[in-house]
Amino acid sequence: MKKIGLTIGLFSCAILFAQKSQNYLQISYSSICCGTPSDSPVMDYLSIFEKKNKIKGLEVYKQSGLGREGEYNLYIGTDNLSKTQKTSFINGLKTAIDNQNSARAKNRDGIVNFSETEIVKKADLMNARNLTSYKKINSNK
């Protein structure tokens, strides 16, 4: 049992210490009654942004288990973006999220929350529970 715990601990530390970014944008998916909204609009935008700007891969992590109806957060590393890329990225991300929120059914669909001024540091992520690498973005559609 100790070996399993040690192995899991080492694996978790290896994932977190392999992170390249120090600063992350946080996107929160919350529920009203019927589960959380899809992350497809955001993930599609990330894919398009990567291709357009010829970026190898944005670092994305998912923190699950934040509520009874599947609430979760996504964290996107921004350190490998130039200042103009970061500004463009944030503006496009806000647009994608605003479009998703405006198209939802107000009394039953969940909300996507994003604040460009809320930056999460790597040290904070190291202490986060239920954090996993989110590789969905790197798959080609």
List the helices and strands and how they pair.
Blueprint: H1 2-17, E1 23-30, H2 40-53, E2 60-63, E3 72-77, H3 83-102, E4 111-121, H4 122-126, E5 131-133
Antiparallel strand pairs: 1-3, 1-4, 2-3, 2-5
> What is the approximate shape?
globular
Low-confidence stretches: 13-19, 137-141
Largest sheet: 5 strands, antiparallel
- Looking at how many chains there are and whether they match, the oligomeric state comes to single chain
Q: How many helical stretches? A: 4
Radius of gyration: 16 Å
Mean pLDDT: 82
Please describe what this structure looks like.
With 141 residues, this protein is of the alpha+beta class. It is 39% helix and 23% strand. The chain has 4 helices and 5 strands. The protein has helices at 2-17, 40-53, 83-102, 122-126; strands at 23-30, 60-63, 72-77, 111-121, 131-133. A 5-stranded antiparallel sheet has the order 4-1-3-2-5. A hairpin with an 8-residue loop joins strand 2 (60-63) and strand 3 (72-77). It is globular, with a radius of gyration of 16 Å.
